[in-house]
Amino acid sequence: MARQTNSSMTLSRAFFGFMALMTLVGAVALALSLQRITGQLTQRMLFTAIEGRSQAAVDTFQRDLAQDWRLLTAVTAIAPRQPGTTLRPALELAASIADRDETSWIGFAGLDGKVIAATGGLLEGEDVSQRPWFKNGLSKPYAGDVHDATLLAKLLSPDSAEPVRFIDYARPVRSTTGDVIGVMGMHISFDWAARRLKEIGAPLSLDLFLVSQDGAVIISTADTDPVHPVMQAFQLAKLGAKGSVLAPWPDGKSYFSMVRPVQAAQGVPSFGWRLIARIDANALGDISGDLARSIAKIIAALALILIVMTIWFAKAIAQPFSRLASMATAIAEGKDIFPREYSRLTELRQISGALARLQARGAGSAPPDRD
C-alpha cells in the first residue's frame, strides 16, 4: 500500500508564495537599482551644475580683470599727448571711471624710471626703475602676480595692520614715431578680488579658490582654508590641468571640485592662475531624495496592482484546480457526485471532463452541463 503524506501546501498557497518571493526579489533589485541610478544622476547633476557655474565664475572674474586693463590701455594711448604732470587729470579720470576702490594707483614713469605723473600725485618723482612692473613694461604688456607694495601701502593705508596686496598692470608708452618713451603702470589692490569672488560664488552656491602657478591658495571664499592643500584638485591646478574631482576635503566632507584656468581675456596678460570651484556633494541631496520617494511611490503602486492581479488569478485559476482536487478525492472515496466541468483552460477542461466521465460511468448518468 502506497504511503500517504499530508501537506498543507495548496496551489493557491504555492502561487501566493511564489508571487511574494518574486515581489521581494523585485523590490530588492529595484531598490539597489534605484540607489545606483539616483547616485549616478546626482553626480551627473552635480557635474553639470559645477561645470556651468564654475565657467560663469571664471568668465565674470576675467571680465573684471579686463575692465582695468582697458582703462590702462586708454590712458597709455593719450600719454604721449599729455607731457609731464598735465597727464595727472587724465589718470584721475580713468581711476574714477572704474567706479571702484580697487584701482589704487595709476602712474606714468619715464625711461629713467622716475614717476612723472600719478593719481593723487603719489610717488611722483620717485624712482621705480627696479620695480618688476617697470622693467617688464618697457618691452611688452605686463601683468604682475599678487605681491606686497610696502611704499604705496604706507601712502594709501598708513593705519592698516594687515599688509596690502596688489597686482600690477603695465604697458609701454610709445611716441607717435613708435619709440618707447616710458611705462604706464597700474597697481590694483587685491582686496577687491576676495570680495568679488565671494560675490560671484555666493549666488552660485560655490566655494572658490584662486590658486597660483605653484599651487598656493591666493584667495579662498570658504570658511576654512586648506593650509597645505594636497588634494587632487590642487594637484591638477598646480599642473595647469583642467578637470573635475569628487573627493573628501580636510573638513571631512566630500565635494565635487572643478579646476579651470583663469585665461587671458581681452588682451590681459595671463597671471597663470587657476580657479577651483567646489560644491558640497550633498548639495543635491534633497533633489535625489525627492526623486527616490517619487519612484518608491510608483513601485508601491505597481506592487498594489500586482497584488490585485494575484488575487484575481488565484480566484480565476487556482481555486478551480483546488475544487477539482476535492472532487477527485470525493469520487475516489465513492461519493455519488457529479463534478463540475470547467472550460476556462485546456487543462481544467481535460481534468474536469475526465472526472465527469468517470463518475458518469460509475453512476450510470450523464455529466452536468459545462460552466
Topology:
Elements: H1 11-78, H2 88-98, E1 103-110, E2 115-118, H3 132-137, E3 142-148, H4 150-156, E4 165-174, E5 180-189, H5 191-201, E6 207-211, E7 217-220, H6 232-239, E8 243-248, E9 254-261, E10 274-280, H7 285-332, H8 346-363
Antiparallel strand pairs: 1-2, 1-5, 3-4, 4-5, 6-7, 6-10, 8-9, 9-10
Q: Overview of this structure, please?
A:
The chain has 371 residues and is of the alpha+beta class. 48% of the residues lie in helices and 19% in strands. It has two domains: 31-282, Beta-Lactamase; 284-371, no CATH class. It has helices spanning 11-78, 88-98, 132-137, 150-156, 191-201, 232-239, 285-332, 346-363, and strands at residues 103-110, 115-118, 142-148, 165-174, 180-189, 207-211, 217-220, 243-248, 254-261, 274-280. The strands form two sheets. It has a five-stranded antiparallel beta sheet. A five-stranded antiparallel beta sheet has the order 7-6-10-9-8, sandwiched between helices. β1 and β2 form a beta hairpin. It is rod-shaped and about 135 Å long. The chain starts with 10 loop residues before the first helix and ends in an 8-residue tail after the last helix. Mean pLDDT is 78; it is low at 1-5.
